[in-house]
Design brief:
single chain, 457 residues, alpha+beta, Methylamine Dehydrogenase, Chain H, 5-stranded antiparallel sheet, 34 strands, 16% helix, 40% strand
Length: 457
């Protein structure tokens, strides 16, 4: 190899190393999750100060006429019980690529130096400096704030496309989900997946919840019914919803064992008393409001969001009163709700904001998270014991559509963690409030479940 060719080769390697180092630094400056499917991996956060907006709204209370039906439940044994244990190993390719580039440049520089290639010590020093920088930036985990541990379970190989909701963890720490015509759970400790086939053809499970006795409740929009699985006996109990094609969407359980659910197409809130088999339905005053997420407060009132009605609403089952608060941002598309400490928090899908209703003043405060989510939407909501509001965005404007876990604190600081590179869209998330407190589970595309360990503790 001629001296001129060797010199060009060294310049090429040095330039390549510089380019890759700059790219690696750009990745570090843009906070991202660099994690593999192991509890030993950590994610890092970035914080952004937010300017909230406040506006006082006037609530409207309406008394509606409820209708009560008595339905006959069907009890059938579960069929086609199956289990699987998916594996999740997948390499973090950039680290391997960085290591190969560093090794190649270092060996080439040493070999050419020993063969008498005359290039300046400054150039050699620059090459070694760039190699060190590249190694540090690609191989080391950057720290931007609070670290979270992330684990992933890939379910695409076993034909599951799960949905999860807020209250899905049983007393053993299993995370329950629905998937088409099945309900099942993930055991995070053993990686075991177990599913039960829901009886009849045409099921479409839209919501799942676990009660205090570890029985699993679900809504079946395909066959317009409410279901319950007792995993200890493998028996399903099924109640038909009186209103045809009601579109049952979200489910909440009270301490007396009653099951409340939203009927998105019937524009009603329903309640099943499983002891008497009575289903009561309350119409919503705002027409075509599309009731979505529900949650009960400590007084037994049922809170819900009106997705197209653009309101926060409360039903008092004892008095049949429905009170509605309009959201200041037009067409915000609320689709997440959480009630805590006299405040009602909600997520605005279309306007990409987190809202909070102060019940003592009727003031609504909104925080925009578009700086993090870009043109992508947010869905679902959870508020932890420190009054931090959590939500998940479907993607990020500069991270190729990855999901983003967001937290807004009482200090108006938005902190966020970006999903690992392989995982993008999501459907809903659940928080473990029973066993591993604060663990956040998120369903993503491709079909998988992510866990952010102790995030909301």
């Amino acid at each position: 190899m001629s001296r001129d060719i060797r010199s060009r080769f060294v310049r090429f390697l040095t330039l390549s190393c510089l380019v890759v180092s700059i790219l690696a630094l750009a990745i570090v400056v843009t906070p991202s999750v660099m994690a593999a499917p192991s509890d030993a991996n950590s994610t890092t956060s970035s914080a952004v100060p937010l300017e909230p907006t406040e506006e006082r709204v006037n609530p409207v209370t309406t008394i509606v006429d409820s209708t009560t039906f008595k339905v006959n439940p069907l009890e059938v044994p579960a069929t086609a019980v199956d289990s699987a244990t998916p594996t999740t190993p997948w390499p973090y390719i950039p680290i391997a690529a960085g290591a190969i580039i560093c090794a190649t440049v270092a060996l080439a520089a040493l070999a050419l130096r020993r063969r008498g290639h005359r290039f300046s010590r400054l150039r050699l020093l620059s090459s070694l400096l760039l190699i060190s920088l590249l190694t540090i930036t690609i191989s080391a985990t950057p720290v931007y704030g609070q670290e979270l541990t992330v684990s992933t379970w890939d379910l695409s190989g076993i034909g599951l496309y799960p949905i999860i909701n807020r209250d899905l963890v049983d007393s053993a720490g299993n995370v329950w989900f629905g998937s088409g015509d099945k309900v099942g759970y993930l055991n995070p400790a053993t990686n075991e997946i177990k599913t039960w086939m829901v009886p009849d053809v045409g099921n479409a499970i839209t919501a799942v919840s676990v009660d205090g006795a570890d029985r699993v409740w679900f809504l079946d929009s395909g066959l317009n019914r409410i279901g319950r699985l007792d995993p200890s006996t493998n028996f399903f109990t099924l109640w038909p919803i009186p209103t045809p094609s009601s579109g049952p969407m979200f489910i909440s359980l009270d301490s007396a064992g009653n099951v409340y659910f939203s009927e998105i197409y019937a524009n009603k809130i329903g309640r099943l008393n499983p002891t008497t088999n009575e289903i009561t339905e309350w119409p919503i005053p705002t027409s075509d409001s599309r009731p979505f997420h529900t949650m009960l407060d400590s007084t037994g009132s049922v809170w819900f969001v009106e997705n197209t009605g653009n309101k926060i609403a409360k039903l008092n089952p004892a008095t049949n009163e429905v009170t509605e608060w309009p959201i200041p941002t037009p067409a915000s598309g609320p689709c997440g709700l959480y009630v805590a400490n006299g405040q009602v928090y909600f997520a605005e899908w279309s306007s990409r904001k987190i809202g909070r209703l102060n019940l003592s003043t009727n003031e609504i405060t909104e925080w925009s998270v578009t700086e993090v989510t870009g043109g992508f939407n947010i869905f679902g909501l959870f508020v932890d014991s420190k009054a931090n509001a959590w939500t998940v965005a479907v993607g990020n404007q500069f991270i190729w559509g990855r999901g983003v876990l967001c937290r807004i604190g009482s200090d108006n600081i938005l902190t966020y963690w970006i999903f690992p590179a392989r995982w993008a869209r999501y459907y809903e998330f659940a928080v473990d409030t029973k066993v591993n407190l604060g663990d956040i589970y998120v369903v993503t595309d491709p079909s998988g479940i992510l866990r952010f360990h102790s995030a909301a503790a």
